[in-house]
Design a protein that fits this description.
Blueprint: H1 18-40, H2 50-59, H3 61-78, H4 82-85, H5 87-102, H6 109-135, H7 142-153, H8 158-187, H9 190-198
Protein name: ECF transporter S component
Organism: Lentilactobacillus buchneri subsp. silagei CD034
Keywords: Membrane, Transmembrane, Transmembrane helix
Length: 200
Amino acid sequence: MKTEPIHRTSMWKFKLSAATMTLIPAAVGINYVAKALAEGLKLPVWLGSLGTFLASMLAGPVAGAISGFINNVIYGLTLSPISTVYAITSIGIGIAVGILHANGWFSSARRVFISAIIIAIVSAVISTPLNVIFWGGQTGIAWGDSLFAVMVANHAPVWLASFTDEFVLDILDKVCVAYLAFFIYRQLPQRMVHFFRDDK
């Protein structure tokens, strides 16, 4: 299924319709299960934004941002309190995905890769101050934090080391999630895709 750009003025329209009220909990559930699975298997990625990507692609950046925010709050209250801190990051991811998708940046495998890099930058820029404030600059992922430790040991500024730690992890995570979302979206029935577009 070809991914068609959405009219720029319509991508910001948000209506709490039956379709959206069904999509957001589904997206939150996908985020929750994917993140729990990644943590349980100790994967070097988070995967907790897959539902956010899909919600943004189907219903726009506002729906994606809401899905990501709710998931971080619920996940933080149930499994990992750390997650709540990054609710603002999920909002940024949802908005970035929605804008990129509306402008045709999920229309081909090559464009998806570029989109993933942009989203990773957005995520890292938002997350880095949070990492520094709450965790001394680290992310909690062992190999990323090893890079952070090496940079700090070599007298790199904490902010730069923290951003590098976060960015290398975000690149891997967002590329994985972006392609998963891209392939899932392309398999969805066109009737479903147009249902959310017509609902705006």
